[in-house]
From TrEMBL:
The keyword Cytoplasm does not apply. This is Uncharacterized protein. One of its GO terms (biological process) is methylation. The lineage of its organism: Eukaryota, Viridiplantae, Streptophyta, Embryophyta, Tracheophyta. Keywords: Magnesium, Metal-binding, Methyltransferase, Transferase. Pfam families: Methyltransf_7.
Length: 386
């Protein structure tokens, strides 16, 4: 007998046409569930500034171009672009060079909720006769802006036009699921699981290869687009273990209560086991070595810094002793990043059921969860190799 979810028609779409963080301003939206990323980003600002200090400044009539790759729809991207431009302006002031005008491009996949993002943007400052006036104005932005839709695994900008690339918490998203992991006939078919965590070496290797292929494409595109003297700052989820089947914090997020909730739907007959098995979270948290291998073999960029940075918990709660708040936070956090994929796979109603189960399972383990779940990030500061 066909189960409810088997009747949901999911058009076969490439991941990049479909994927986004949960848009809007609702309870499980990315805008309302990205305070952890905001905290982690804040703790790394000194590294961002160190990277900016390596960028060459020039007196030019052309705009100074800053790009955030994987901007999503919350205020984090706006905050970091603001920090970047203010820091570069300070450097221009100290250098005595004529200050250029600034452009900032917010880029993400086409399904991203750019409308919600642009509603958060402060108005343009007084970009009139004198640049200093607009810089001084609080609550105003000192840059022109536009959205650029498209995958950062391909070209997004004309050659040699970008001074600073920044990307936070995005590069662990694969461009697609590795084919061997989704092919039912393959020995690497991820049967019974919805994530790599706790799977076998052959499956993990499929994910690793996809991550490294994607990162290579990313670097190749940026090496064409970046201006000489530019700089690039990248942050993505990373792991401390050498073993890729141990994904650390992301493993707890997608491999425990989320996994169990999928199993619940199967046991309750709401979806078939095949339906669960054909769902996979396209995330890979690399080790430093996984990341380094690609940058070095690509050869376009020098590594100024490459380290694993402890971000902390992905859960932000007001009352840590309230297990149900912890449970809700985990479910909302999971839904804000993976909800769009789940909705497309089993439909909105069953997605509600799934995340309801994630919340209640996480509530039963609230205390342990808060103690155990920690995210680490690979942080890379890159410039052109000479
Ligand atoms: C967790 S969000 C990070 C948002 C933001 N940078 C921040 O700090 O809060 C990850 C973003 O990466 C984007 N992303 C994933 N794969 C992408 C790709 N191939 N090209 C462009 N953006 C991508 C997602 O759509 C999502 O908006």
């Amino acid at each position: 007998m066909a189960t409810v979810a088997d009747k949901v028609v999911v058009p076969t779409m490439q991941l990049e046409r479909l994927f986004s963080m949960k848009g809007g301003k609702g309870e499980s939206s990315y805008a309302n569930n990205s305070q952890a990323q905001a905290r982690h980003a804040k703790s790394m600002l000194h590294l961002v500034k160190e990277n900016l200090d390596l960028a060459e400044l020039q007196a030019s009539d052309n705009p100074f171009v800053v790009v955030d790759l994987g901007c999503a729809s919350g205020s984090n991207t706006i905050n970091v672009v603001d920090v970047i431009i203010k820091h570069i302006i300070k450097r221009y002031e100290a250098s005595g060079l004529k200050q250029p005008e600034f452009s900032a491009f917010f880029t993400d996949l086409p399904s991203n909720d750019f409308n919600s993002l642009f509603q958060l943007l402060p108005p343009l400052g007084n970009y009139g006769a004198r640049t200093e006036e607009c810089v001084a104005a609080n609550n105003h932005r000192s840059y022109f802006t536009a959205a650029v839709p498209g995958s950062f695994y391909r070209r997004l900008f004309p050659a040699k036009t970008v001074n600073i690339f920044h990307s936070a918490f995005s590069l662990h998203w694969l461009s697609q699921m590795p084919e061997i992991v989704v092919d039912k006939k393959s020995s690497a078919y991820n049967k019974g699981r919805v994530f790599i965590h706790g799977s076998s070496a052959i499956i993990a290797n499929g994910y690793k290869k996809q991550f490294q292929t994607d990162l290579r494409s990313f670097l190749s595109a940026r090496s064409v687009e970046m201006k000489r003297g530019g700089s690039m700052f990248l942050v993505c989820l990373g792991r401390t273990s050498l073993d890729p089947t141990d994904q650390g914090g992301p493993g707890l997020l997608f491999g425990t209560h989320f996994q169990d909730a999928w199993d619940d739907l199967v046991k309750e007959g709401l979806i078939s086991s095949e339906k669960r098995d054909s769902f996979n979270i396209p995330v890979y948290a690399p080790s430093l070595q996984d990341f380094r291998e690609v940058v070095e073999s690509d050869g376009s960029f020098t590594i100024n810094k490459l380290e694993l940075f402890k971000g902390g918990s992905p859960l932000v709660v007001n009352k840590p002793d309230d297990a149900s708040e912890v449970g809700r936070a985990l479910a909302n956090s999971c839904r804000s990043v993976a909800g769009v994929l789940v909705d497309a796979h089993i439909g909105d109603k069953l997605s509600d059921e799934l995340f309801h189960r994630v919340a209640s399972r996480a509530t039963s383990h609230g205390k342990v969860l808060l103690e155990q779940i920690q995210f680490f990030h690979v942080v890379a500061s890159l410039s052109f190799a000479n």
